[in-house]
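Take a look at the protein record below and flag anything odd:
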Amino acid sequence: MNTIPRPAVMKVVRLQGLTLAVVAGIALLLDTEIGVSILLGGLIQLIPQAWFTWQAFKYAGANHANAIVRSMYRGEAGKLVLTACGFTVVYNVIDNVNAIALMSAF
């Protein structure tokens, strides 16, 4: 019996992380404040997205339909909380944040 293979979504998350590292590294060489803001904005997006991806694709198959739905709701709720916490921490802890760079990377 053939089953549908799981999508390679974690590869996408790793590619996003690599892209973020390259872009933030280049920006850090040009301007420290903008580079840090890009890195933080990207991490505010990447960490919750990785959490959601891990939760959403934890189960597969029709036998796990209820677990899949619960896992997706848990993933989306966690993603919202992690995103809100990320912005709260950045705006309350980091003094010099370039909002345009932060939101562009987000």
